[in-house]
Amino acid sequence: MATIKTHPTGEDVTAFLDSVPAERRRAEGHALRALFERVTGEPAAMWGPSMVGFGSRTYTNTLGTNDWFVVGFSPRKSALTIYGIHNESAAPDPLLAKMGPHTTGKSCVYVKRLDQIDASVLEQLVKNAWESNS
């Protein structure tokens, strides 16, 4: 049976964000970290080599019982990937339509530029996800 490969690593989040090659994406990563820490009250933790997660919860799926962060993000080259504020199997939060330009995946939201979305709406989406899943 396959196992999930993404776990908390204990690596330094600041060092990871500082190592993001693109200056704008690096700054966006630090801004997202501040927003997520403010909303969740939890410190950022590295999950795998490139995801910054907040909190932890246990879930069971076809791979068994595992832990995963409640909300998080990754400052990827093509887009900021935000986890936990969207789930394709549930009704979409109506706030997503008010956030600004984005696309969605199965369980994440992709944002090309943080300065093009409404930060207060993103903050509310993170708060809603945190409160309903932690």
- Report how far apart the termini are: 28 Å
Sheet having the most strands: 6 strands, antiparallel
Q: What is the approximate shape?
A: globular
Which spans have pLDDT < 50 for at least 5 consecutive residues? none
Q: Kindly identify the CATH topology.
A: Aspartate Aminotransferase, domain 1
Features:
six-stranded antiparallel sheet; 134 residues; Aspartate Aminotransferase, domain 1; alpha+beta
Fold and architecture overview:
By secondary structure, this protein is an alpha+beta fold. It has one domain: Aspartate Aminotransferase, domain 1 (Alpha-Beta Complex). Helix content is about 30%, strand content about 25%. The protein is built from four helices and eight strands, in the order ααββββββαββα. Strands 1-2-5-6-8-7 form a six-stranded antiparallel β-sheet. Helix 2 packs across helix 4. The longest helix has 18 residues. It is globular and about 40 Å long. The protein starts with 12 loop residues before the first helix and ends with a helix. The model has no long low-confidence stretch (mean pLDDT about 90).
Q: How would the blueprint of this fold be written?
A:
Layout: H1 13-18, H2 23-40, E1 45-47, E2 51-54, E3 57-61, E4 64-68, E5 71-75, E6 80-83, H3 96-99, E7 103-104, E8 108-111, H4 119-133
Antiparallel strand pairs: 1-2, 2-5, 3-4, 5-6, 6-8, 7-8
Helix pairs in contact: 2-4
